[in-house]
Amino acid sequence: MEAGALVRGSRPDEVEVAATKSSAVDPVTAMDRAVEDLLRRRLAARRPDDAILGEEGDDVTGTSGLTWVIDPIDGTVNYLYGVASYAVSVAIVAGDPDPARWTPLAGAVHSVVDGVTWTAAREQGADRDGLPVQVRRADSLATSLVGTGFGYEAERRAEQARVLRHVLPRVRDIRRLGSAAIDLCLLADGRLDLYYERGLNPWDMAAGGLVAVEAGAVLSGLDGAPATRRMTVAGSPDRQAELVALLEEAGA
Ligand code: IPD
What we know:
By secondary structure, the protein is of the alpha+beta class. 32% of the residues lie in helices and 26% in strands.
């Protein structure tokens, strides 16, 4: 993948923060911008009628009813510090590009450092480097390994910490790996049993969410709602429902 090669090939020893977004600890690097620019140029040349929704740029409107949802580096803090978990995430969705209403058609998550790529197409399954992947079916919530993530704003983090306090004693353990796209693909790949996070943006979940669903996961929000910014919960059907119930009990 050209975008992955760009990130892999030119990470300086000292990555600088070019700007911050939702808070002082929510960084944007020059590489986030360069990768998004590359993807936008490629898509504009090949798919001029499609819309683009990207983390680092202005929304592009289209006429085809299709939208490319791009996260140039999901896991920017890991990229900043040289921690190996960050990915380029690209998906195409039909209809309103809002997670509550969209229909994801295809997606790819390319984990930059190890070069692993997960792909999925609607109703055609999910693959890691061309080999099919399938979610695990943990025996119980209590023995489930659960991935999660945190936002960048202090108030949201305080709320996430409160919910985590309720969840942690009731599961095998928690992983906070720093890239929602990779978390969802690891779930698809059977390396996590469950995943939940509040506050995800469409580009964090578009491709990874489809990979997870196509690998057999249920993806939803709470109280019967679809997965949205308010809450995203993913896992094999039985365990996902149990985690939803636990999060509801916690008032998440
Ligand atoms: C972040 C990562 C992280 C998640 C945050 C996201 P970014 O995306 O996916 O794992 O916990 O909520 O914002 O900022 O690195 O693209």
